[in-house]
Specification:
two-stranded antiparallel ribbon; alpha/beta
């Protein structure tokens, strides 16, 4: 019997960017929801954040930008950003005298992909600033 070697492709290909700190927790919770929805998706792990600045001198590695251009969308957790003086101090020793300058990967992503608005769902009874939101509303926040 001949077996067909056809690989089925997922409907969505999502760049998965946990980033730093609480970003890993946020993404774990997001994955629970997406799995519960049975979203037909392939999740592509991507590197972003402080760890990559310290090890590589780039908080948004080129391989991540390439992956973002090849996926349907990106899902991002959170990152750490620090002042330039602290950023330079935390670089790996072999990178310290290379003239590297830290930039926020989020700002760079917004500029690269023309992203200007964050959509944030609001929970019932939750507060966003001084405005009370109902469960079926969202807050649209303009980014930098």
């Amino acid at each position: 019997m001949l077996v067909d070697n056809v690989t089925t492709m997922s409907k969505y290909k999502i760049a998965w960017m946990p980033g730093d700190g609480v970003g890993h927790d946020v993404m774990e919770a997001a994955r629970l929801v997406l799995d519960r929805l049975q979203l037909d998706a392939e999740y592509v792990p991507c590197d972003i954040g402080w760890e990559f600045w310290c090890k590589e001198g780039n908080a948004l590695p080129d391989r991540t930008v390439k992956a973002l251009k090849e996926t349907t969308c990106g899902l991002f957790g959170a990152i750490t950003s620090k002042p330039q003086s602290e950023a330079k101090e935390e670089l790996a020793p072999e990178l310290k005298d290379k003239g590297l300058v830290y930039f926020s990967p989020i700002v760079k992503l917004r500029q690269m992909f023309n992203l200007h608005t964050n959509m944030r769902p609001a929970a019932r009874g939750g507060l966003h600033g001084a405005v009370r939101q109902s469960e079926d509303e969202e807050v649209d926040r303009q980014g930098t």
